[in-house]
Amino acid sequence: MVKRRTSIHGQWSSRLAFILAATGSAVGLGNIWKFPYITGENGGGAFVLVYLLCIALIGLPVMMAEIMLGRRGRQSPINTMRLLAEEEGKNSFWKYLGWLGMLAGFLILSYYSVIAGWALAYVFRTAAGAFTGATADGVDSIFAQLVADPERLLAWHTIFLVMTMMVVARGVRSGLERAVRFLMPALLGLLLLLVGYAMAQGQFAEGLRFMFKPDFSKLLSGDAVLVAMGHAFFTLSLGMGAIMMYGSYLPAKTSIAKVSIAVAVADTLVALMAGLAIFPIVFAYGLDPAEGAGLIFKTLPIAFGQMPAGTLFGALFFVLLVFAAWSSAISLIEPAVAWLVENHGVSRVYASVWCGLAVWLIGLGTVFSFNAWSGFKVFGMTIFDMLDYLTSNIMLPLGGLFIAIFSAWIMKKASVREELDMRSSGAFDYWYILVRFVTPIGVVLVFLRAINVI
Ligand code: TRP
Question: pTM of the prediction?
Answer without folding.
Answer: 0.96
